[in-house]
């Protein structure tokens, strides 16, 4: 009897332990905010380690033609083969805004089941996130335009760049870095690894005037040489009944010389006028177009505070 009782008790204990373990494994996972990053012109796939350290998930979108193995080759490495750079066909040829949107929508769909999605677009990436919101507005908790294009009254980023507010941009000063005929290679190719002091000085003023030399050179070495000729001129306006109902945030860069602060403010005003019931929540950071490491800490803090 004692042995039988003992075996019964052990079985019950084992069953109880198993039940506890099963309950522990089956416990619903806590929702986690996922930040999806869409880069601007010439940007690679990026994320934010600071947000990860704060308990969030971050993922960068692999935009078509932006993969490292597609654009980095020996002709671009030192010593450079400028003749080859002038003729090599670009993986960005014929890449459209719709292609960027499709790639981003796929990422948003994959991560949406884990919790809120905050979709972040920098610079030209703003055009992409607007159109993604048109496609899947119910899967996005917040749109973040980080010194980015937001087209409403005007059709495209090119149209906004041609406004009085946009004409003060230093983008045109980068012309000395172009190393190929766009009609030959099918894209705009800039040699960010050029040793031309005139170009380097112009690029620093345009992108990171207040940054140190090391930060600036690291920025240039991470940029992709090619960008599509089609995206900048594409219709990037959002629909009021879709994009217009997604919560949105704008992070102003007051020292920006690529998308001047006056142009940023114009786009904010026009978007607010288009959807007066859903206005931008605006933050301001005193930084250039490409933020320094210290400024990016401020931006990460802003992004962190957006999580529910």
Write structural notes for this entry:
This protein is an alpha/beta fold and 308 residues long. It has a single domain (31-306), classed as Rossmann fold (3-Layer(aba) Sandwich). Helix content is 40%, strand content 12%. The protein contains twelve helices and eight strands. It has helices spanning 2-26, 49-53, 68-71, 82-85, 97-111, 125-135, 157-161, 182-185, 197-207, 213-222, 261-274, 293-306, and strands at residues 34-38, 57-60, 117-122, 142-146, 188-189, 226-227, 247-253, 281-285. The strands form two sheets. It has a six-stranded parallel sheet, sandwiched between helices. α11 links the parallel β7 and β8 (281-285). α5 crosses α6 (125-135). The N and C termini lie far apart (59 Å). The relative contact order is 0.15.
Write the layout of secondary structure elements.
Layout: H1 2-26, E1 34-38, H2 49-53, E2 57-60, H3 68-71, H4 82-85, H5 97-111, E3 117-122, H6 125-135, E4 142-146, H7 157-161, H8 182-185, E5 188-189, H9 197-207, H10 213-222, E6 226-227, E7 247-253, H11 261-274, E8 281-285, H12 293-306
Parallel strand pairs: 1-2, 1-3, 3-4, 4-7, 7-8
Antiparallel strand pairs: 5-6
Helix pairs in contact: 5-6
């Amino acid at each position: 009897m004692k042995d039988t009782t003992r075996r019964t008790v052990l079985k019950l204990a084992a069953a109880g332990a198993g039940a506890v373990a099963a309950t522990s494994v089956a416990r619903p996972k806590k929702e986690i905010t996922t930040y999806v990053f869409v880069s601007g012109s010439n940007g690679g796939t990026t994320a934010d380690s600071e947000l990860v350290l704060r308990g969030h998930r971050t993922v960068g979108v692999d935009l078509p033609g932006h993969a490292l193995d597609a654009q980095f080759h020996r002709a671009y490495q030192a010593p450079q083969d400028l003749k080859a750079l002038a003729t090599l066909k670009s993986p960005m040829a014929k890449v459209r805004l719709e292609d960027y949107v499709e790639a981003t929508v796929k990422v948003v769909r994959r991560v949406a089941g884990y919790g809120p999605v905050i979709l972040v677009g920098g610079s030209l990436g703003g055009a992409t996130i607007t159109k993604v919101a048109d496609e899947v507005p119910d899967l996005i908790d917040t749109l973040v335009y980080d010194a980015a294009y937001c087209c409403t009254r005007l059709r495209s980023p090119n149209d906004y760049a041609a406004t009085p507010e946009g004409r003060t941009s230093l983008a045109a000063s980068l012309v000395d870095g172009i190393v190929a005929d766009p009609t030959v290679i099918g894209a705009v190719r800039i040699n960010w690894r050029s040793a031309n002091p005139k170009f380097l000085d112009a690029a620093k003023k345009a992108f990171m005037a207040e940054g140190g030399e090391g930060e600036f050179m690291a920025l240039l070495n991470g940029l992709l040489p090619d960008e599509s000729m089609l995206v900048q001129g594409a219709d990037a306006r959002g629909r009021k009944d879709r994009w217009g109902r997604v919560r949105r945030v704008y992070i102003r860069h007051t020292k920006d010389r690529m998308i001047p602060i006056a142009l940023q403010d114009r786009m904010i005003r026009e978007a607010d006028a288009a959807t007066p019931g859903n206005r931008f929540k605006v933050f301001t950071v005193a930084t250039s177009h490409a933020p320094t490491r210290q400024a990016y800490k401020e931006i990460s803090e802003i992004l962190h505070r957006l999580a529910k």
